[in-house]
Amino acid sequence: MAAGFASTSSRVGRSLLGCLSNNLSSVLGTSHGIACCNLLSQQQRTFIQMRTVLKVVDNSGAKKVMCIQALKGKKGARLGDTIVASVKEAHPNGKVKKGKVVYGVVVRAAMQRGRCDGSEVKFDDNAVVLVDKQGQPIGTRVFGPVPHELRKKKHVKILTLAGHIA
């Protein structure tokens, strides 16, 4: 029943979710109620903002990056937006080394995004493809699905490298 409330994206759904979690904590006791509230609050998705750890889905050599700044947005980055990130984990023989500051394009985001036809797209994880200052990908392959919204944001090269376009 709580998952139904968590899947709605309107303000009413979120306010009901907050009331539901408050009622659960009072009914179930403090320790079990807090665990339920944490479970329910994990269902809400947010923008990619500072200190968000993202998975790298290309063969540039990096495994994980941490977002330093989201470019062109006050709240944060969404699908197709460019971010500045710091490499946290890297392969030893890759082009990109640990600690290097890089640019990246968000190709998968856990926050849902509406499409023109009324459908919504969201992914299970936050993923990024590393690019240079001109916007060209550093790697030569892109793993996993990427959304076709990247075409509107002028990242056609990433779409050509991807194996699956969602």
UniProtKB/TrEMBL annotation:
<dbReference type="InterPro" id="IPR019972">
    <property type="entry name" value="Ribosomal_uL14_CS"/>
</dbReference>
<dbReference type="Pfam" id="PF00238">
    <property type="entry name" value="Ribosomal_L14"/>
</dbReference>
<dbReference type="GO" id="GO:0019843">
    <property type="term" value="F:rRNA binding"/>
</dbReference>
<keyword id="KW-0687">Ribonucleoprotein</keyword>
<dbReference type="GO" id="GO:0003735">
    <property type="term" value="F:structural constituent of ribosome"/>
</dbReference>
<dbReference type="InterPro" id="IPR036853">
    <property type="entry name" value="Ribosomal_uL14_sf"/>
</dbReference>
<dbReference type="GO" id="GO:0006412">
    <property type="term" value="P:translation"/>
</dbReference>
<dbReference type="InterPro" id="IPR000218">
    <property type="entry name" value="Ribosomal_uL14"/>
</dbReference>
<comment type="similarity">
    <text>Belongs to the universal ribosomal protein uL14 family.</text>
</comment>
<keyword id="KW-0694">RNA-binding</keyword>
<protein>
    <recommendedName>
        <fullName>50S ribosomal protein HLP, mitochondrial-like</fullName>
    </recommendedName>
</protein>
<dbReference type="InterPro" id="IPR005745">
    <property type="entry name" value="Ribosomal_uL14_bac-type"/>
</dbReference>
<keyword id="KW-0689">Ribosomal protein</keyword>
<keyword id="KW-0699">rRNA-binding</keyword>
<dbReference type="GO" id="GO:0015934">
    <property type="term" value="C:large ribosomal subunit"/>
</dbReference>
